[in-house]
Structures are given as structure tokens and as C-alpha cells.
Amino acid sequence: MELLKLAWRNLWRNRKRSLIAAASVFFGVILSVFLTSMQEGSFHNMVDNMVKFTTGYAQIQQKDFHDNRSINNSFKVSAVLDSLLNTQSEITVYTQRIESFALASSGENSYGVSVIGINPGVEEQISGFSKWVNQGAYLKSGEPGILIGESLANNLKIELGDTLALLGQGYHGVQVAGLFPVSGILKFPVMEMNRGIVYMDLNRARDFYDLPNGLTTLVIMAKGPEDIQQITSSVKRKLPEELEFYTWEDLQPQLVQLIDGKRSSAKIFKGILFMVIGFGMFGTVIMMMAERIRELGVMIAIGMRRIRLILILFTESLLIGFLGVLFGFIFSYPFIVYLSRNPINLTGNIEETINQMGFEPILEFSNNLSIFLHPAITIFMLTLIISVFPVVRIGNLKIINALGA
Amino acid sequence: MSIISIRNLTKIYDGSSVEVTAVNGVNLDFEKGEFAAIVGPSGSGKTTLLNMLGGLDRPTSGEVIIDGQNIWDLSSSKLTEFRLNKIGFVFQSYNLIPVLTAGENTEFIMHLQGKSREERNKRTKELLDEVGIGDRIKSRPNKLSGGQQQRVAVARALASKPTFILADEPTANLDSKSTENLLDIMEKLNKEENVTFIFSTHDARVVNKARRVITLVDGQVDTDVTK
Predict the structure, then answer these.
(1) CATH top-level class for B32-44+74-226?
(2) Which of A96, A171, A269, B213 has the fewest beta carbons closer than 10 A?
């Protein structure tokens, strides 16, 4: 007569009550799974859009560049590094950038700007950069044209086809200057970016900063944030001493904070949800004990050790939780898998707003294992907490009182 | 040679306003194979005495020595183990485990004793045949009559091969026929297996069958007659 069999049969003595308790777990699991899946999916989408737009999923920089963004803190891609990156299957693409500063002048107006030298073809592949070109044309490799933000163009009072003078400090402190035709005007959703960035072809930037074959930033892209840990562990330790590896989390702490904040709010919501489920299960356990107190007394009287009785009651609570979790997973898993493969396309005003922000107007779902694992662990922990009641109750049970109940 | 010795056993219930002495300095000895009934009016202390004898209710003072061991010197877990191996219980309201079948209820104690499946199955069948409900081995208690349930309770009590069986008003909820059947079975088992039975009862039919009748009045032994 196994303990499990006894617990299982006890569970079905009051079928309706056990089903209601298991159903509360079932609905709680479904709600938690869908909520977490949608939230993690949207974070995934947000991170993906943000990193494509800015830093990439990871970057390799000269080790001092992070704190001192001087052109002197640049490096060259060696054959060894190139080969290391090419052998990482998680890396979908990587590209070189030069990121520095210059003074942009036109007529009597001058503004400090960030100058970013990019590989137009690869950047287009990564983020579809050309979609931000409001007037004119996107960059072409080897051509001298530059892209500037709409606000900068207005501030400098220049138009498409005009020439912009850039003055800056090149490699090893040489003064550099150049005239660049404005081939396109950009309109980003982020105003700050419209005001202070100049994009040019990577080789033009190298010429301008007198940095042949050099770069300040090697941007790495992956399929998603989940691949970064693997890339980090394979690449970071093999990098030469003078180079440093950064993940998007190192490079975008504000985004990390935003996501952490949203996760914390969701945790509070899920905490309340599981607390309600916990009280439901607790009520069931109290009832299960109260109506069987005489029977429990008999079992101890005839020689059953109290610890075995506690184990039976614990198993009963565990089975309620297990049934709820199991059916919750069975029900939600196909939907989650389907939705993670077929994100919901947003329409109407939401689509328009999200499009303007440069993000994909989709509602993405995640099917990460942790989405299913966390509710299961939480229910197990709840069962453990709830089991304190039978432990105390049976520990203090007076057989005579129980037999007279 | 007595297998049970009760020495100066006293139980005082400490009520909110007044102390009640349920059992007052009882001395008794039981030998192997006895078929004894403890009788007396309500409130005479029969059930309290049986509970102390069965290790279920701690006495205020006195000793219960079974097979040379004062059971109230044992720790709670040792006492549970002692009850499991030495004492069989038959309760007034059967108290079978409702989710287990007649066979499983009988087997339950042997399972707690750690007996092998083969031994459990063999003895369960033997016992249920002996109490005359071998054909109901797979029935749950709610499918059995009161008499049948009490017979399963007797089989359960015997399953652990105890030193003695305590039966608290075992026939109180049974009709005449079931009572007769049950008493015949218990008497037969007493004689054939030499198991000691100690009853507390109001029932004249039980008293008639008993070979020793102990009468309690106000928590004290009034008469102790061996037929």
C-alpha cells in the first residue's frame, strides 16, 4: 500500500473540492505562463529592436574606449579575431564601426556631433537602417556622402546636397578636417539622435580620422539575447588582453533597468496571484484535515508514525499542485509555442505608434523553459509552506481527542 | 504468568472548575489467551482504562506493564511502534480507512510493520476468510454492512499478530445477528490463535461470552469474576 496510492485516493474522496483546488492552480499557471511569455516576448522584441538600432548584442572595444571614447583607443581586427568570430555559430553577423566626435559647421553655425562610420551594407542587413532616411538616399560604400539628422540639418540650415564641414581630432591627436556632401536627411523617432549624429561610410571615416583599417567598435549580432551568454563565454576569454568584450546589458544599462523594473512589477502581480492560489490550496488542506481528524487519530493509534501521516498529507497537497501545473502546461504549451512562432501583428493606432518608434509592430511571445519552470517551482514552494500546517497539526494531535472527534 | 500488569493506575481529568477522577488506583493482571470484559455503568472509567492500557491516553499515575515493559516509560515514537506490534484495536464505530478496500485495510498494519507483499497478501486472505468475508476483499467500507466492517476491523487488529486486542464497545453499533456472528468469530480466534481479547462493553451478550468479567464502579474495580 504505497503512500502515493493512499494520497491519490484521499484526493478523490471529495472530488469536487479537489478539482476546484486543482483548477485554481490550473488557471493560475495559465495566467502566469501567458503573462510571462508575453512579457518576456515583448522584452525580447524591445531588446532586439534597441540593439539593432544602437549597440548590437555585444561589442568588442579597445579596453580603454568604454571610459574614454577617443579615436586613439581604437584597434584593428586581426586574422585571429576574425577567425574566432567566424567560428561562433551563435553570431549571425558582425560589423566594424568608428565612433568619434567632430565639430560640424555650415555657414556661421557650428555644433558638436558624434560621427559614426558604418559599413552601409551590413548595417542595412542588421537594422534596415535606410528606413530612417527621410530625404535623399542611404549611404553607399566608397561614396563620400553623409547622413545627418533632421534637427541637425535645421540647426545648421543646410539641405540635401549641401556640404558640411567637419573638424575633429584624428588618430594620435592630428587635427583633421573634411567637407562632406549631405546625401540624406534622417528622421529618427528619438529626437536626441536627430540632433547630434552624422553617419558616413566606414572607409570615409577612416580617411577622415586618419585611421587606416582601424575601428573603435566591433558590433556583434546574434539571433536573440539568449545567445549572448554562449557568445560571451566562447569569445571573451579568448580575446587579446588589449580588447574588452561588452554585452548589450553592459552597454545599455538604462534598458536593463527598464526591463528589471517591469519584471519587478510583474513579480508583484504574480506574487498576489500565487498568494490567492496558495490560500485556496491552504483552505483545501485545512478542510481535508478537519474532516479526517478522527481517521488520522485512528491511523496513529494503530501504529502509523506521525511523519508518515504528514508525508501523506504533503503528497496530497503536492498532487493537487501537480495536477494543476500539469494540465496548465498541457493547455498552455501548444498556444505558447504557436504564438512564439507566429507573433500577433498589431494594427491600427498601436501599429502606427510602434512603427514611428522604429520597432516592429508585433506582440511577441517567448517559449523559454523558465516560463514553465517558475510557476512549477512556485507551486512546489507553496505546497511546502502549506505543509507546515499539517506538520504542526499532526505533531500536536492528541489521539484521544482525535478519536472522539 | 501475566502478559499485562496494571499497577495503581489513576487518571484524573483536570476540568475548568473541578477535578474528575476517571480511573482510581486500578490494579489488574491479564494472562495470555484471556477473553475478558470490562463492564460498568457510563462514566465508570471503562474506556479511559482501555485507552491507558492501549497507550493512547497517558495516566496521571501508575504503570501499565506489557511483556515486561512499562509502556508509559516509552517515547512517543517508541510507543507508536509498540502499539503497532503488540496491540490490536477494535473501535466502536469500526474506524476503517474509507479509501482502502477490506483487503487493504487488513493489510495496512502489516505494511506499516514492513512485511513483504507476499506475506501481507497471504495473511490478509487468511484473516478475511477466518472472519467470513473473504469474498469481500476488494470492497470498500461504504459497500459493507456494519457487521462486515467490524469483522474487517477484527481482521485488521489481528493482522499484526499482537499480544492482545482491545475492543472498545465493539458491538455497540451492531444488530443482534451481527453481534452474535462477531462474538463467535472473536471467541473462535481467541481459542484457536490464543489471542487475548479485552473488551469494554455494556452488551449482555458480550458479558455472557466473556470468561472473565471485571466490573468498574467510579473508576475502581468493584468485582473481578472468572467464570
Answers:
(1) alpha beta
(2) A269
